[in-house]
Amino acid sequence: MNHQASIEKITGKPIEARAKKSTPLSFSRVVVWIKRNLFNTWLDSLVTLAIIALLCLLLPKALDWLFFSATFSGTSRADCAPGAACWIPIRQYMDYYIYGPFPESEQWRVNSAFAVGLFVFPLLFSQRIPQKWIVVYILVLPVVLWLLLKGGFIFEDISTSALGGLTLTFFLGIIAMCLSLPVAILLALGRRSQLPILRWACIGYIEIIRSVPVITFLFMASLVLQLFLPSGVSIDVLFRVLFVLIFVSAVYKAEIIRGAIQAVPKGQIEASYAMGCGYWKTMAYVVMPQALRNSVPALITNFIGLFKETTLVMILGLLEVMGAINATFHNAEWLGLHAEGPIVISAFFFIACFSIAQYGAHLERRIKRTKH
Amino acid sequence: MHSFLYNRKVRDTLIQLVFFAVICFGITYLVLNAATNMRDAGLTSGFDFLFQRAGYDISYSLIHYDPKTSTHLMAWAAGMVNTIAFAVVAILLTTVMALCLAVMRLSQNFLLSKVSLCLVEYVRNVPILVHISVWYTLSLMLPSVRQAFNFGDVSFLSNRGLSIPSVEWNYGLLASLVFAALWIVLCFLVNKRVSTTGRRIISVLLMTIVLAVLASLVFTPVISFTAPKLVGFNFKHGWTLPPEFIMLIIAVSTYSAAHGSEVIRGSILAISKGQMEAGLALGVRSNIVMNKVIIPQALHSIIPPMTSIYINVLKAAALGSVVGFMDIMGTMGGSSLNITGQAIECIVIVMVSYGILNLILAAIMGRFNKAMQLKGR
Asked: What does the DSSP assignment read for B323-355?
């Protein structure tokens, strides 16, 4: 039994078993499943029992602390039940976490920015819409987001200090993602270029940036960048951070895209040249459509990394979602509630990143399916 | 003229010249700006500040560092040693935990596999900064020295950190050098003998142990341990690792282990099913097929992505500045920079230091990868 089960774990079920129609669920099948997957050997049984015991011990306590004994409604610290979670500050400051200090009358702009940004995912998902429109959408997206969140042109201008909470996380994440893509494409092309100076400049840039922690560049942006600008010129810290995020994450994307470019058969490029297409035409119409399409799953993983990395701007004093949540718990009234803040931040990032990751895995499976 | 411009070689050279000129112009512009700005601020560029007294304290340093007398150069060295110590411990822990998580995930026990899945997915999808702050908050809840967790009277965990037995090397420099030379010669000899059998790492390890045991038998013990002991309000003897160091290591290594376990699992699952079936058809037990056939092959695809995870671990040392652990970024890029105002020099030193550490790590992993590569026929 043990032997058979461990084989199946690696090789999957035998073909005839896969082809067979599933038999209706019966008691004996459940028993067989339990026996095979939970109590296979004595060691297995021990592990299973240990896990069940641990779950029985911890889960009720955790659930009780989190929900059953926890306080959800109330107005002040005095309403909090002792020995359980207190979600009052979270509910009180929910608006602040999402919109930050964004002016209340303009909050519809943030909402529509979320909607416009999140629309990328169904767009990437759909197979009916031509690739051209998706590219256009991704190119226009940062401009639209900028207009909505930062203002200018037709909308009222919002000061950079009014961006905070989830709005700031979203702003930095999506704009850095969209704007770093073209930089990454150029770097990837440069790294594979035939021209030695261009190639070595790109290799040098990529390798240097890759070997230094992002936080060094963030500190550099906050402390050193000012030195390199002519006196009198100063750039807002938000834009400096955005600049760093764009030019650092472009490097990692460049490596992903380079890998995808290398995977395009060389014969196609040669064929394109033989047809009389130049370098840019070959890249734009033959190589890039395939390379970008194949690198979408890896780029989504990269996006998750970038999204998580936006928390680092907290170190420079910008209150993105994690900074905003931490700030409320440093409030004198809510001081001493250690666990609630991290739990909410973890839950938020877990839900966001996990769903994007599942989506990326789904796209990857689809790409694999269509390839063979 | 027209055909001249359309000549491929001419065009390539021209494009590169223009590109080169633009870059040179940009760099000159920035450097000139920096020079004017520094002159206005009354700063002189140069690395002389390295030999000035640093005058700030480093909360935890493995080498001797005295805030009153030590120079900025010593502060850099302290940060560098901290970074390396952090990286070595965190990388080892990452590897062990990643392996455990991957084995758990591939286990046939449904519950164990799902527990690993939950752990990995939770840890992977939450930013590292959150992990660090959670572990740091936990470290604040550790008991005082008097109520420290006692691990068999040899290690203690309290709010001062983890006290572990110290390891002392009982010989002077000369004797150590002789030992080192002997070790290298013996390794070389072993290396020559085993180059045909391939079990190099195990042989070298065995060699080292044999040498240590022999030396201990002939002389007084080469290495001795001293357990920490509670004296007054603190631990005497032994080594004390501060809580921020431990918590940073735990946070970073769990985070990278979650990523690493996915790499390991993916590589093992990517090995063709036929390999397992062939082994089983030959009548070999499945766990032996796993150890002798699947894992050696999976190792080739594990090492390159693992290298980049290790490099991320190394770079995560810089996040120590959030919890007060001083690595190069904390010493040179933080305190030294603020005190001297030599921003450009300090940042350059930090970048070069990280670059060198990265190169060393990549070179070691490259060697390892080469050693593990399939020997083609």
From this structure: HT---HHHIIIIIIHHHH--HHHHHHHHHHHHH
Whether residues A163 and A60 share a domain: the answer is: no
**A57, A151: one domain:** no
| pLDDT tens, position by position, B108-119 | 888 999 999 999
Smallest Cβ–Cβ distance between A11 and the set B277, B318, B321 belongs to B277
Residue ranges of alpha helices (H) inside A263-287 are 266-274, 279-282
Most confident of B57-61, B146-150, B291-295: B291-295
Cα-Cα-Cα-Cα dihedral of B43, B45, B50, B52, to 10°?
-30
A186 touches chain B (CB under 8 A): no
Q: Last residue of some domain: A73, A99, A130? A: A73
Q: How close, in Å, is residue B299 to chain A by CA atoms?
A: 17
A51 and A161, same domain (yes or no): no
Give the pLDDT confidence of B247-283 residue by residue, as tens digits. Answer: 999 999 999 999 999 999 999 988 888 888 999 999 9
* Least Cα separation, residue B223 to chain A (angstroms): 36
- Strand-pairing partners, residue B231, are B234
A window 245-284, beta carbon within 8 A of B: none
User: Are A365 and A327 found together in one domain?
Assistant: yes
Q: Which of B19, B118, B125, B136 to mutate against chain A (most A CBs within 10 Å)?
A: B125
A-chain CB neighbours of B12 within 8 Å are 194-195
Distance CA A107, CA A119 (A): 19
Q: Is residue A84 part of a domain?
A: no
Arithmetic mean of pLDDT, B82-89: 93
| Touching A: B residues 309-348, CB under 8 Å | 311, 315-319, 321-322, 329, 333-334, 337, 343-344, 347
Establish if A196 belongs to a structural domain.
Answer: yes
Answer for the pair B320, B248: CB distance below 8 angstroms, yes or no: yes
Tell me which residue in A195, A338, A349 faces B12 most closely, judged by beta carbons: A195
Residues A60 and A158 placed together within one structural domain of the fold: no
- Any chain A CB within 8 A of the CB of B276? yes
CA distance A194 to chain B (A): 9
By residue range, what is the domain housing residue A112? 91-371
Count of domains forming chain A:
2
- State whether A164 and A269 are in the same domain: yes
CATH code of the domain covering residue A287: 1.10.3720.10
* A114 plus A223 within the same structural domain: yes
Gap between the Cα atoms of A200 and A193, Å rounded:
9
Q: Looking at the structure, do residues A112 and A147 belong to the same domain, yes or no? A: yes
Binding-face residues of B in 48-87 toward A, CB within 8 A: none
Cβ atoms of residues A95 and A79 within 8 Å: no
A79 within some domain: no
Shortest distance, CA B19 to any CA of chain A (angstroms):
7
Q: Is residue A253 part of a domain?
A: yes
**Rg of chain B, C-alpha, whole Å:** 26
Residues near B220 by beta carbon (within 8 Å), at least 6 away in sequence: B170
**Predicted pLDDT of residue B377:** 45
The pLDDT of residue A156:
79
Mutation for A interface: B18, B28, B273, B351, most A CBs within 10 A: B351
Question: What residue ranges of chain A have pLDDT lower than 70?
Answer: 1-23, 371-372
